[in-house]
Automatic annotation (TrEMBL):
Record bears the keyword Lyase: no
Annotated keywords: Cell membrane, Membrane, Transmembrane, Transmembrane helix
TM region(s), chain numbering: 12-33, 45-67, 88-111, 123-147, 159-177, 248-268, 306-324, 344-366, 373-394, 400-421
GO cellular component: plasma membrane
UniProt cross-references to InterPro entries, sorted A to Z: Poly_Biosynth_Transport
Membrane topology summary: Multi-pass membrane protein
Name of this chain's protein: Polysaccharide biosynthesis protein
Compartment(s): Cell membrane
Amino acid sequence: MQIAKAITGNLLSGILGRVVGSIGPLVVVPLMIRAWGMAVYGEWLIVTAIPAYIMMAPDFGLAGAVVNRMAFLTAQGDEQEAVYLYRSSWLVLLCAACTFVGIGWGVAWLVDWRIFGVKTLPHATATAVIGWSCMQIFVAQQGFLLSGIYRSAGQNPRWSLMVSIGSALSLAAGAAALTFGAMPLQCLLTQLATQFLWFCVLCRDSRRVMPAFTLSLHGVSFQRVRAYIVPGLGHAGMPLVNALQNQGVLLVLGVVLGSASVGAFQTMRVVVNGIKSILGQLSTAIAMEVPALLGQAKSQLIQRILVRNTQIGFLVVIPGILFMSAEGGRIFRWWLGPNAPYDAAVIAILLASLLPYVVGASFAVLLQAGNQIHFAILPLIGTALVSVAAVGLGGRIGGLTGAALGVVAWECCTAAMLAAITCSRFQHRFADYLSQWVDGRSFLRDVQNQVGRATRRLSAKPTNA
């Protein structure tokens, strides 16, 4: 099946990036704690959480909507319109991002960061870290827009590989800087320089993939971009919801429990985020192909793919929960030393939050690919705000265990809302998904078919030679 081959290619090409995303924190976090101490590491997490909110405004999800539309237009044979849309959105995003980078510096200078538990880092250092972090996000946003070129050319695996290499280089640069005793600002600038240089390489490579996608003012029109602002808000909404859960939790815990507790909580979340990174690679590989499938009106195939995504996610998460429950303490002591901030109850609760996450992530793929995610944003933002408040209240009452319970509640509410909205927008029945999730025989048949095809291709190669 062609779509299975495409998804497999996307998945394999992105393995390096997910390995970097999973292993990177395992390498960098101990280096940061040893170089700076737990308190400064916690303050670093608090300060770098702010740019995620500031730099959401200039993108407002436009890049996500435009990238999907570029692939859709190219699949229908309208490459020229895709080129004009790319140029128009690039100009709008560039102007907006430059404005908000300046706003980020101003906000950082005016805020008294002691409110959030930042007491060790000097105010000037915290300001500089926030400002340069805004620049780092700006470079990443410009790079993401280039993914539309690769999708339009059917070169998703190449895009994933290029991004993975860039992430690995940035990680290596940061780890090297920490090894030589770099402080927070020095570490950030080292990674930013590496990221910018690789962005230049990515720009040059995209020209080789599709030479027609050049940057110029020819065909630029705000009217083209305006049509994707509302769908774009949906794409901006999901990062906002995630920021509320991830960075918002850190800010609230900084106020309630202090920076040292923030460092401990985030260190334990590294394990959960590593598993999320692995699951995210499969969802990303699928999301790259769904816009084209929607253009071809293959609804049943899309539903079947989403079901398989959820089933594979369960197969990853459940063994992970069992393994960490048995060996988590030993792993943390080996990783961070005898004084590792390990709490078995907190780890177990955070790992349990991955089960509803798997369900919600599968439905989010279809909503985002179909530019329908904006219908889910307001309910999800409301739920996220309540959940952040619950994390703060739980942290005040029950410490880190109470905070972890707030995370589980958020994931459950998110999964339920995404499932309900997806079924409503695409006329799917949730009962159909549920029946297929528990249908192990169908899943095994698909696995056997894919293994059989792969085996036949491998056995045919020597004959063809």
